[in-house]
Design brief:
Distance between the termini: 60 Å
CATH class: Mainly Beta
Number of strands: 14
Shape: globular
CATH topology: outer membrane lipoprotein receptor (LolB), chain A
Strand content: over 45%
Pfam family, one: DUF6503
Structural class: alpha+beta
Strand order of the largest sheet: 6-5-4-3-2-1-14
Mean pLDDT: 90
CATH architecture: Clam
Radius of gyration: 22 Å
Helix content: 10-25%
InterPro entries: DUF6503
Number of helices: 4
Number of domains: 1
Order of helices and strands: HHEEEEEEHEEEEEEHEE
Protein name: Deoxyribose-phosphate aldolase
Largest sheet: 7 strands, antiparallel
Length: 252
């Protein structure tokens, strides 16, 4: 009986060890689950359009190739069409391709990309240039969140590769409810904190709007923004609202 008893103890030990190992989550695993829950698996092969602050945004993504567009109608009824792809930026005015100064291309590209980037979060957080770190857990509005820091490599990280992001992903439903980021300003570092609301699912893809906050100028880090939000110490600047959203999936 002793060998059988010993075998039983060993099996029980390894099963317990396996269960404990499975409960240890990484930042990658948490983000992967959030992307799946939010329909991020559909975004890489899709055509998405929406309106934001009077401008039309269009995105086509197909197996790694992407074209991100923005249409602006001026007060004089001129039409400006910006087109950002994997390897180029082009601007058309009234359907005519114009020459854009080299110094302005990064600025225009970043402006187009940032709106599209936020529109489909957390999709994009598995890009090669992205580095994720789980900082622990935090309670906001009586809900528990994984707190994940995101930074970018210089190579492949875009013009603003040195920006820093923070994501609060719900332990309950694995959705991103809060996002914070820091960015370079002429006079220092700017910080924003966004609260998601008005969730809707369009053809399987999750979209949200945001309340856009900023902290006092003395705040230089993203780490305590969740607590500052809880304490009512952030100033509401604006609302980030997407309208007329459409999603068409591309079959391959």
């Amino acid at each position: 009986m002793k060998p059988i008893y010993t075998l039983f103890i060993l099996v029980l030990f390894f099963n317990c060890k396996s269960e404990k190992t499975e409960k240890v989550l990484t930042a990658d695993a948490i983000v992967n689950t959030s992307i799946d829950i939010s329909g991020g698996n559909k975004v890489p092969n899709s055509k998405i359009s929406f309106d934001f602050r009077g401008r039309k945004y269009l995105a086509t993504r197909n197996n790694g190739a992407f074209v991100l567009g923005r249409v602006i109608t001026t007060e004089t009824n001129d039409s400006i069409f910006d087109l950002l792809s994997n390897d180029s930026f082009e601007r058309f005015i009234n359907d005519e391709l114009i020459t854009v100064a080299d110094s302005m291309i990064p600025r225009y590209s970043a402006s187009v990309n940032s709106v599209h980037y936020f529109s489909v979060l957390p999709y994009g957080l598995n890009d090669k240039a992205v580095h994720k770190e789980l900082l622990g857990e935090e309670s906001i509005k009586e809900k528990l969140y994984y707190k994940i820091k995101v930074t970018f490599s210089k190579e492949g990280g875009g013009e603003d590769y040195d920006d820093e992001f923070m994501y609060w992903i719900s332990k309950d439903d694995h959705k991103v409810d809060f996002v914070a980021y820091s960015y370079a300003e002429d006079d220092g570092v700017g910080i924003r904190y966004r609260e998601a609301y008005n969730e809707r699912i369009v053809n399987g893809v999750r979209f949200v709007d945001y309340n856009n906050y900023k902290p006092d100028a003395s705040v230089k880090s993203l780490l305590n923004l969740g607590q500052l939000f809880e304490d009512g110490k952030l100033q509401l600047l604006s609302k980030i609202e997407l309208e007329a959203i459409t999603v068409d999936l591309i079959d391959n």
